[in-house]
Specification:
This protein has three helices and no strands. It is mainly α.
Length: 86
């Protein structure tokens, strides 16, 4: 795991630790920054966005974090139509 991610994981003390801010969970890790250019409406669009975020997580070493689960990406995609304030 990259050193900054290892440090972050070792400092994990509460469930919102990985959020971008207190009101924005983001992709489930503050190191994931894949933008949402437009709201995905179809399953195919959601799948493409999932792949982009998963690829970023793999490249940055986020998948090695013991507190991160790729299911976070699915949760965001499932809720994206209802809440887009962050």
């Amino acid at each position: 795991m990259k050193s900054n991610l290892a440090t972050c994981a070792s400092n994990y003390t509460y469930s919102n630790h990985c959020s971008l801010s207190p009101t924005c969970k983001g992709w489930g890790c503050r190191f994931l920054t894949t933008p949402i250019d437009h709201i995905p409406m179809t399953d195919q669009e959601k799948a493409k966005l999932f792949v982009k975020v998963y690829r970023e997580a793999k490249q940055k070493g986020v998948l090695e974090c013991p507190h991160y689960r790729p299911i976070f990406i699915d949760e965001v995609l499932n809720n994206i139509e209802r809440k887009t304030d962050c």
